[in-house]
Amino acid sequence: MIEFRDVTKKYPDGTVAVDELNLTVEAGTITVFVGPSGCGKTTSLRMVNRMIDPSAGEVLIDGEDVRKSDPALLRRGIGYVIQQAGLFPHRTVLDNVATVPLLSGWTKAKARTRAAELLETVGLPAEMGKRFPAQLSGGQQQRVGVARALAADPPILLMDEPFSAVDPVVREGLQDELLRLQGELDKTIVFVTHDIDEAVRLGEKVAVFRQGGVLAQYDAPAEILARPADDFVSDFVGRDRGYRGLSFVDNEGLPIGQVDTVLVGGAHSPSQQWTLVLVDGDKPRGWLAPGSTVDGEWTTADALAGGSLYTRGTPLRGALDAALSSPAGLGVVVDDAGAYAGVVTAEEVLKVIESRRETAE
Ligand SMILES: Nc1ncnc2c1ncn2[C@@H]1O[C@H](COP(=O)(O)OP(=O)(O)O)[C@@H](O)[C@H]1O
Ligand SMILES: [Mg+2]
């Protein structure tokens, strides 16, 4: 368990990066810190492993003030993963992963065996251990970064925008991998991102920060979507997703909206909105992120995997899953024949589910 108690960080130039933060990260969960750039996410994260010390207040791990720990020892018990992986360029992948066990006094042979196991754990073939970081793709480097952070089997993992530099398709693969790993490893993970969709997808709890280092809301993701604490959170989670209001209410009472669509093989028409890719005339295949462009015609390869589909008339839980698993934050609704019918937001699905609960009570 990690506790922030009245934590404030004021930099010497007067910038208040974190303002009286009070928050508890439960052991064995993924907690996501999300918010726009400059709102104090990184500063908060780094106060856990003492890369930064608070100006006031305290950070406790399992009840113990981190300032009582030796920083070097503390960090061995805390894995740290950053954007672009931060690998040592002149060491092989295997040696990168073996770094922390070696620092902890393991023999070279034992550290390397452990490193090889970890490459497998994060889904990389053993041969890649011999390569240098520059010889891997961005996504592979991030996997190595995760393997390195896990090497000493730390109970805590701090991840600062670890997947922000890779393209959306690879990012989704890495997110899936992290969720799978967490299912096995049960770490206490604090994950920083500026992307609300990533936060909602990964977080069991999500902390939304605003400018000035203020915690705006700390809740389960579905709660944040359904009941934003204020206008800031509401704007932040509801950022324009290209969702064009209501087109009809289905027989479950669920409001269905519409988005732009493109056909695979269709002409190139870039959109500033999330756009749904259709195949065979009307079957949803995936999403194009705002601003996506191609030379010529769209192909299925251009589409981001789309999350689950919701078939009209089936239990509403499926509509919520569809919305939460969609990269666009919009669940795709299909008819019995699998044809695109519209989209739903998690917020609206939850409203319908709740109003039924109230009626039933
Ligand atoms: N060393 C520093 N000195 C002065 N201001 C800083 C320093 N590091 C960060 N800041 C400022 O503190 C605020 C929070 O930064 P940061 O925690 O990096 O935000 P985030 O990770 O949410 O983008 C920003 O206004 C940033 O400019
Ligand atoms: Mg940051």
TrEMBL record:
Domain ABC transporter: 2-236
Enzyme nomenclature, EC number: 7.6.2.9
A Pfam family per the record: ABC_tran
InterPro entries, per database record: AAA+_ATPase, ABC_transporter-like_ATP-bd, ABC_transporter-like_CS, P-loop_NTPase
GO molecular function: ABC-type quaternary ammonium compound transporting activity; ATP binding; ATP hydrolysis activity
Record family assignment: Belongs to the ABC transporter superfamily.
Database matches in PANTHER family: OSMOPROTECTANT IMPORT ATP-BINDING PROTEIN OSMV (PTHR43117:SF4)
Name assigned to this protein: ABC-type quaternary amine transporter
Phylogenetic placement of the source organism: Bacteria, Bacillati, Actinomycetota, Actinomycetes, Pseudonocardiales
